[in-house]
Amino acid sequence: MSTTISVPPQLLLERILTLEIVRVTERAAVSAARLRGHGNEKGADQAAVDAMRRELNKMPIEGTIVIGEGERDEAPMLFIGEKVGAGINGGPKVDIAVDPLEGTTLCAKNMPGSIATMAMAEGGTLLHAPDVYMQKIAIGPGYDKNVIDIDAPPEDNIHRLAQAKGVPTHGITVLVLDRPRHAELIAKIRATGAGVQLITDGDVAGVIHCADPENTGVDIYMGTGGAPEGVLAAAALRCIGGQMQCRLLLDTHSKRNRAESMGIEDPNFVYQIEDMVKGDCLFAATGVTDGSLLSGVKFRKDVIQTETVVMRSVTGTVRYIKADHRQFEKFHLD
């Protein structure tokens, strides 16, 4: 006698969407990778945006882009508020955050660390962050609450983390974006004896690195970067664990007015992960260029190879998917 296993529709749908968002980031990564090393940042970004939009519109969802490509870089956009998905009648309502090509300069110069990434969450649960800079501090899982404090000096955060980890301060490595604005921060970090690992771009991947210090060597992320990237990073940490605190840098009237129009009432509010991603979410990223997080797209004679990480907050599952795409051109143009 056969037994039929009943799977709740929402759970089944979540599992389907987990695979579907992998296809979205894969297509974006492959499209961008065709322009690796060509010195054309906007062209690579546009290729990733177009591929991501095309794939999103095939998904059985009623999706709204709440985090899109940024105006700060004068880049092409999946614009905030854009509706995507094929589930016009009855599909789940979801919020979507995208960075179709994080590290446009890295891709244009064929340097390590460029990725295509997105997050998806229940409708109304992702922070609608304006495209401004955001102060960030993040660590991985396994620590007591309040080990980090965004308002504390960097020295205090390093000492507290070292104590929690049971190592001297010179056993801590801090990841920081290599920008002139971080010169003072870097000096203060090094004065504690801690090491600094600098990255030129890609602070979504940078935050994710601190969640796996045994493999990445990174214990903590500090500094300022894009607010949209902050929400994407928070989605990843929501899935794999960790702590993150962020504050929007609203230093002009126009920025404050824009933030207020997006529902942000307190310009000095300190956001935790749960404030930026309030419900269950999915996160995916596919490598464009080789990096410490993911391998880049490989164009072989008869196959295109990709590597993707996909995460689910409801289960805490993290999957790394290495895929061989055959007859990719035909599939890509469907």
TrEMBL record:
Coiled coil start-end: none
A GO term, aspect molecular function: fructose 1,6-bisphosphate 1-phosphatase activity
Top-level taxon of the source organism: Bacteria
Catalytic activity as recorded in UniProt: beta-D-fructose 1,6-bisphosphate + H2O = beta-D-fructose 6-phosphate + phosphate
Keywords carried by this UniProt record: Carbohydrate metabolism, Hydrolase, Manganese, Metal-binding
Keyword Oxidoreductase appears in the UniProt entry: no
Matching InterPro entries: FBPase_class-2/SBPase
Protein family (similarity comment): Belongs to the FBPase class 2 family.
This protein's name: Fructose-1,6-bisphosphatase
Native species: Rhodopseudomonas telluris
Higher taxonomy: Bacteria, Pseudomonadati, Pseudomonadota, Alphaproteobacteria, Hyphomicrobiales
